[in-house]
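Reproducibility note. Readers wishing to regenerate the assembly model reported in the main text can use the exact inputs given here. Chain order matters: entities are listed in the order in which they were concatenated for prediction.
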Amino acid sequence: GAVVSQHPSWVICKSGTSVKIECRSLDFQATTMFWYRQFPKQSLMLMATSNEGSKATYEQGVEKDKFLINHASLTLSTLTVTSAHPEDSSFYICSASPASYEQYFGPGTRLTVT
Amino acid sequence: GNSVTQMEGPVTLSEEAFLTINCTYTATGYPSLFWYVQYPGEGLQLLLKATKADDKGSNKGFEATYRKETTSFHLEKGSVQVSDSAVYFCALDRGSTLGRLYFGRGTQLTVWP
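Running the prediction on these inputs yields the following structure tokens for the assembly.
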């Protein structure tokens, strides 16, 4: 149980385009979902926290207009990277939490912007 | 501030060897401490946790003790297996805000038969 999926697992896009990443909790309802970013050989950095039906809370330094987060249902959150640039290339990981304390992580999405 | 420092990898061991992955932390307040494991192609999974000083978390033969005096949470296993090959992340939370996890950089462990 407690499986979180991400789609796509790998995406390549051209500079200036937008790309959407989906995060789904497959067998539980996620009250809260989180989006992390991981650079090579670096730790995971929390980008934002979202609750279903509410606006996401962004961490300091994260551009909310660039990284649009939508938590439309208790099983789905999306991260849209708008007007992507090569510096946005990274590994994006989501996690989902039911009403309990623990987070369940997705396998991650590798974004490459050319 | 809050931060986690863990030993850099990769760590390569033979099967049945003893494993230690060092983790130290800096935190305000009274954090909980975690070890997550990421197997190839999968998401991070919680391996073990400790919520207060002197607590020992354990799971699947892995152990870690919350040492407040040395601000450490080292991961140990007495006899590793090939199936333990993965990336291990140490993490802490501030204890007051759900989801605000601070991660170390991860340590790649490879176990050879």
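We highlight two features of this model. The mean pLDDT of chain A is 91. Chain A touches chain B through 21 residues (CB under 8 Å).
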